[in-house]
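Aim 2, interim progress. The first record below pairs a target sequence with its structure tokens.
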Amino acid sequence: MSKYAKALFVLALALTFAVPAFAETQNVKVSGSLDVYAFFRDTYDLNDDNDRGVLPVGGGAGGGTNAHKSEGDEYWMGVTQVEVSADLTDNVSTVVNVINQRDWNADQHSTAGAANGNTGAEFDITLDLAYVQMKEIFYSPLTLTVGRQDIWFGRGFIIGNNNTSWDPQGTLAANEYSTTTAFDAVRATLDFAPWTLDFVYTKIQENSHDPEDDRSVFGTNVNYKFAEYNAVAEGYWWTEADRGTLATTNAATNGDSRTSDTHTIGGRVQFDPISQITLGGELAYQFGDYAQTVTTERDRGAWAFDVFGTYRWDYTWKPELTLEYVHFSGESNTAVSTDEYNSWNLLYRGRFYTAYEDFREVVYGTTDALDQSAAQNSNMVQIKGAMKPLDDLLLEAAFSWFWLDEDVATRSDEIGWELDLQATYDYTEDVSFGILAGWFVPGDFYTSPGDDTAADIVSSVKVTF
């Protein structure tokens, strides 16, 4: 056989395998979004006398510098996403989403307040989603999803948002607006309608590649949908095994990592007794071990619950009113101790109720040394109303009141109250404009000078394609 004939044979053989490979892709879809935010935030540390701008939790310089001091921050933020999804044969599909999120040409600051210039990562593209989903794999009710994926269960009270993946490149000041909320996970879903069973394993932090400094989450969620009253019930058990927080220090002490295990068990019910009313509740309990220091371990014992009711009027403007009560248990003894530790672990909650309070001492710091994270030791009662005076205009208002579960020192238990107002206008099916205004008024827990009102105003334009 001549060399030309051999070349043609090899080419024909390659095409034989290549053509069916390309034909396996049944459908490819490209989509994305462009979001732009404008922020004005004032007195976020609750201290009118502190002129360093909004402070990140744990300290730092905030948005201000020693040369340009301000009680608040004003800046713009942009989020750009491009997603490619492909349907393959045999019920296999893939999704890849890349993203750029950044404050517009913002200086990054050291903890001393000096500007370091624009971050080198400002225009970088990072991976948000990358997973493959295989339906009816091995067994017809089974769906397997592997890779970086969004995970949300129920109303997001326990699992819904990977807060450790917020702002991976350090380009945002408002981390709660980060779009990178996905988990690197393996998820198996068994659909026995009306039953759905989910089993999930996710790696939160690998650190080094040995198992002594990992942080992982695994668990199961069981959901049942009733045939009447739009009713649903679910139960779950989630475990966070955290060996990473104290790994470095502890390894130098005894060569073994101290593990903080948080087991969360709970359940949720929700139903519509009549078409105009929705009632629901969720109760969860945490137990396990809390490694407070390298040598001190405390037993966990914490509670959380969420009870709500919504009434919808059958009017043209579609008004509705929701009353909600949320509780996260707290700990009065935060000193090193062997007592049971009763503070709630935020874990990976996806649902947030307010513009400011949910993120106090979680994302943003105050100047009060006794202030605790808003994700624990807190009670909230919220009244929220919404209406649509126009088909493309949604108006929302929420009033929330907060108080401590356990007293801190000799302080009052009154955390304060917050008023949030929001309007969303759908200019077209693809473009929307929004404005959010929120005010948090500190209660008697806070003392002068750290008891001033925090203000938050955020406007936005969002485009999807």
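The second target in this work package is listed in the same format:
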Amino acid sequence: MFQYRQVLVRLRAGDTVREIARSGLMGRDKLGALRTVAEQQGWLDAGAEVPDDGTIVAALGAGRRARSTVSSAEPHRAVVKAWFEAGVQGRAIHAALKREHAWSGSYSAVVRMLRQLRGEQLPEVTVRLSFAPGEAAQVDFGAGPVLMHPEGKPRRTWAFVMTLAHSRHQYVEFVWDQSSATWLGCHRRAFEWFDGVPERVIIDNAKCAIVRACSHDPLVQRAYAECAEGYGFKIDACPPHDPQKKGIVEAGVKYVKGNFLPTRTFRDLADLNAQARRWVMEEAGTRMHGTTREQPLALYALEAPLLRRLPAVAPDLGTWHRVVLHRDCHVQHDRAFYSAPFALAGKTLWLRATDSVVALYEDYRHLTTHLRAQRAGQRVTLADHLPPEARHFFERDRRWCASQAQAVGPRCTELVARLLGDRIAERLRAAQGVLAMGKRYGAARLEAACERALAHDSPHYRTVKTILATGADLQPLVEPQTPAVYAHTRFTRSAADLFGAEPNTIH
């Protein structure tokens, strides 16, 4: 209102409306209206006092025609307010009033009512949070540049940023993915970078950290909970859809994307991370921070002694996964296969994977631990996990057959060797069958049967079986014919030749 008082003073001093308007103090239309009111009120008379602001406002408002702001939709205010609070748009509210309430008002009336309802709402305000030294760190991911992946294809990188909430000192690392294993590894390297651990880590609701987001009872991922327990920090997950609770690291990610990435080129991921570390120490850490008005590294020097010390032995960080034990007694993880007891086939198990081992659990009961597979498709199997018949099958290999045959005798060893040495057919089952007959007939009779089969050049499973079944091994062995005669009759031998009867007379 100071302009009105100045205009009145100048009008009382004799200045014209044109001169006052030329000075830019007030437009000519307003000057004319003010002079008219001043003349009516006698403010320009000699000896009259300049009125106060309240008197001027009352006099100027009295001559104006009040503008009606009442909406014709006022009878339906309650239902419109309910729709407005539910987020329904104005056009939809106008159409619903016409359809459901037979209202014939205009869309402008709805707009006026919505404007009033918005005015009744409290303005959005915020409070800046402050953190004591060592109290908290905030973590977030941000999109990084596209680089050539070792597999030979261009791929997006992601910037993992952890910012100490008091000093604003940062740890920045670019990675290929946002998996749980990457998340845990970045935390380990960030704590080693800071040479300490904050009391709590403020995060959003990324799946690698939070299984179920909730404002009051978020469900923390099992592997991340072990990490927090091992390093001694608390996990502070922001409420869903409320990133302002970690605004420090949000601003830090924008600072990395806006000040580090532009105008730089990178050969590969290692070069990108090397440049990021130099940038943090030489530029980001030495700048005058816009909020604290201090250098982050200078504040970090005061904060570092107040961080929790790193554990003497780094925690064994592992990721947890729910897996199903298939019919082949193996579970699949990271394109490799690991065995578990066959009795649990079809059940869901817990798998904990570290860089070196894979452990399997039924709920919280430890089942087994395997060394980590070295390549995709590899099967890591313990024989005890297979069903008995499968164990027997795999145990009775060529080496087993050779050792068992040696225990029976030299003729059995020779016969089994000839079976396994066949260049045309695989005869492992035949060798296993010959050795199995030792349990029924005994080693002595099996050795005699093998000797008779070899004497007649018939090293076959069925030959040995027939000899034992007919008891021919118990009869004296008849020497075979001379090679000359035998050469002409080898394909016309009768059963008597093999099983102890007199040989046929050849004329």
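DSSP finds 20 helices and 14 strands in the chain. This observation will shape the mutagenesis plan for the next reporting period.
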